[in-house]
Write a structure and sequence with these properties.
The protein has a domain of 144 residues: 3-Layer(aba) Sandwich (Rossmann fold). It has 15 helices and 12 strands. The strands form 2 sheets. It has a 7-stranded mixed β-sheet, sandwiched between helices. The protein has a 5-stranded mixed β-sheet with strand order 1-2-4-3-5. The longest helix is centred in the last third of the chain and has 25 residues. The relative contact order is 0.13. The structure holds nicotinamide-adenine-dinucleotide. The site of nicotinamide-adenine-dinucleotide has 20 residues, from helix 8 and strand 7.
Length: 444
């Protein structure tokens, strides 16, 4: 994995910056800058052709001062410990910012899932749990899906852990299939959480975004019967980079939960499309599903993915890759608000430029925290063996996201004299919470 998170050092620099603002002592800072536990495992897995392959896996439990560690498991050929450490650190801040009773963790296996059969994937998932069984647990470390792992993989992992334990333990892993103890609302949790934060940020910046209150907590299958909004003169224009899970659901939800949103540009790895009259979700998503790319949607102008970022829109939603807004193009960004659904789309250099231009960036570990928040709800439901309906899940998600957003605004005000940007303010809220827990427990 390349990009921002390949350099754990970048994360450490952010912590240093935060430590200065909060006046942290040396021991506290040292503990925050390294994971408390790093595990490397080598797992023999029988392949379909009868051979045995050894897979290397990782699990990083970064900091558990606020509760058991929580974070996804990634399967990728370029997986590496440095990236996992960085992502585990980010999970720590994300959980703390959302005020979830969790620390942060992350795991990974070096493998190419595209070259594995379903049964090989199942054996790998079970091998990973066996290798780490002593370190995982509903009150120790609770994994979730991430890059190239999915609800089926989580369900196999839960089953293996339950076999080892001797009884059903759905609360050991989140993001499971619904029938195996998954939560309603998990499928669009990241984008839905992003929309709740978007609503608050637009309110803060007075962008005139009009919310359809009656639809806010409607399940996706009900919303899908509703056409895109048809805004009048008070339109709020949106551009979205990336049209995978996060980006396409952002298109879907933004044009249904808000009355005056017009998505004028979207892109995927093949390029971008633009139409000033708006891109209808139902048609663009069908073209994407049928042809593999949004660029084949005819009623639009073809533009590059980079151009999508620089359009004169009100809101820009990067939902693809890391390092997309950089020192090179940040000065050309025209949006008033950037909602980082992707992890790490903005480089530190670009952050400074956007901040000096007065562009408000909702940082990744706030904007895309809906996924882990609904994971938390899944764990709570598993522990109580009582399951919620969609409305309950979304209502609670809204409350968590909204509260976190306004805590960041409070931190911006508190450190106004230091002229910090929203990302640093979010770090301050999160790191301060972790530090308070470490101090209360007598660690530092
Ligand atoms: P995905 O693989 O489903 O989609 C990625 C999309 O980005 C694809 O449409 C791909 O074509 C597009 N893309 C790739 N290169 C591009 C380029 N150069 N320009 C424009 N588009 C490009 O992934 P996803 O799950 O939607 O995740 C996207 C981002 O959101 C990642 O950074 C991920 O870490 C973050 N995120 C996702 C979730 C989630 O629940 N899905 C949760 C938290 C964070």
């Amino acid at each position: 994995m390349t990009g921002k998170y390949s350099t754990f050092k970048n994360i450490q620099k952010q912590i240093d910056k935060c430590a200065k603002i909060l006046g942290l002592d040396g021991a506290t800072l040292a503990l925050l800058k390294e994971p408390i536990r790093t595990l490397i495992v080598n797992m023999p897995v029988k392949m379909d052709d009868g051979t045995v392959r050894i897979f290397t896996g990782f699990r990083v439990q970064y900091n558990d001062a606020l509760g058991p560690t929580k974070g996804g498991i990634r399967w990728h050929p370029d997986e590496n410990l440095d990236a996992i450490k960085a992502l585990a650190a980010l999970m720590t801040w994300k959980c703390a910012l959302l005020n979830l009773p969790y620390g942060g963790g992350k795991g990974g296996v070096i493998c190419d899932p595209k070259k594995l059969s379903a049964s090989e994937k199942e054996r790998l998932a079970r091998a990973y749990v066996r290798a780490l069984a002593g370190f995982l647990g509903p009150l120790k470390d609770i994994p979730a899906p991430d890059v190239y792992t999915d609800p089926q993989v989580m369900t196999w992992m839960m089953d293996e852990f339950s076999v080892i334990t001797g009884y059903n333990v759905p609360e050991v892993i989140t993001g499971k299939l619904l029938v195996a103890g998954g939560s309603k609302g998990r499928e669009d949790a990241t984008a839905r959480g992003g929309m709740f934060v978007l609503r608050e940020a637009a309110r803060f910046l007075e962008l005139g975004l009009m919310v359809d209150e009656s639809r806010l907590y409607m399940p996706p299958h009900v919303l899908s019967n509703i056409p895109d909004a048809s805004p009048g003169d008070d339109v709020v224009n949106v551009a979205i980079q990336g049209y995978g899970n996060a980006g396409s659901l952002a298109h879907f939800l933004a044009t249904r939960l808000f009355k005056n949103v017009r998505v004028v540009a979207v892109s995927d790895s093949k390029g971008g499309i633009f139409n000033e009259d708006g891109l209808p979700y139902s048609r663009v998503s069908r073209v994407k599903a049928e042809t593999g790319s949004v660029v084949n949607y005819e009623s639009s102008m073809k533009i590059s993915s980079e151009e999508v970022l620089e359009l004169p829109v009100d809101i820009l939603i990067p939902a693809a890759l890391e390092n997309q807004i950089t020192g090179k193009n940040a000065s050309r960004i025209k949006a008033k608000l950037v909602l980082e659904l992707a992890n790490g789309p903005t480089t530190p250099e670009a952050d400074d430029i956007l901040h000096s231009k007065g562009i408000f960036v909702v940082p990744d570990f706030l904007a895309n925290a809906g996924g882990v928040t609904v994971s938390y709800f899944e764990w709570v439901q598993n522990l109580s063996r009582y399951y919620w309906d969609y409305e309950e899940v979304y209502r609670r998600l809204d409350a968590k996201m909204t509260r976190a957003f306004w805590e960041v605004v409070e931190a911006l005000k508190e450190f106004k004299d230091k002229n910090i940007d929203p990302r640093t303010a979010a770090y301050v809220v999160a790191v301060r919470r972790v530090v308070e827990a470490m101090k209360a427990r007598g660690w530092v």
